[in-house]
Design brief:
A hairpin with a 2-residue loop joins strand 2 and strand 3. Helix content is 9%, strand content 55%. The strands form two sheets. Strands 1, 4, 5, 6, 7, 8, 9, 10 and 11 form a nine-stranded antiparallel sheet that branches. A two-stranded antiparallel ribbon has the order 2-3. It is built from one helix and eleven strands, in the order αβββββββββββ. The chain is mainly β and 185 residues long.
Length: 185
Amino acid sequence: MENFTKSVFAVSFLCMAGVAHSQTPSDAMMMKQRESCLAVTYEHGSFNEYWEGETLRANATIEDVSRTAIAPMIAIGLHDRVNFYIAAPYIKTESSEPNGGYLNGAKGFQDLTLALKVELLNMELGKGKFAVLASGGYSTPITNYLSDYRPYSLGNGTNEWSARGIVQYKFDMGLYVRATGGEVV
């Protein structure tokens, strides 16, 4: 029954996706001045292997690990070419095979993310529009979660700065090509 409920939710969400437009610090869409957009994303996945550096580790003693994230975010148009973002995801991790109270998983709010996206260029070019954008962000833990014991931890437990460049060409017919590059420190 749980899989059926998830499937109905996913299909309903996909049907709405054609009319809903949301903004993120990594896309090429912009809010106009004084517009705002509230988005809540849901993500669920499970795994029995994970990467630790360049080594692929198997969860030999803990079976499958699942991770669920619910991430509310708001985008605010400060100017037609400047958007501000605030996000604070709630994360839950757990094992499919409880191991006697050791490493049973964690849940809670992860990091507060603040980001700014700027549209540097948006011009007609050929049969479409060419856009260049830049975004920068800062994330910091908002709860005292334990960052050790991967893969159960909620996050890295550290402050992070990010910078991203975005280049997009959108054809008049609606198709687009986008390239993104960035750095997190």
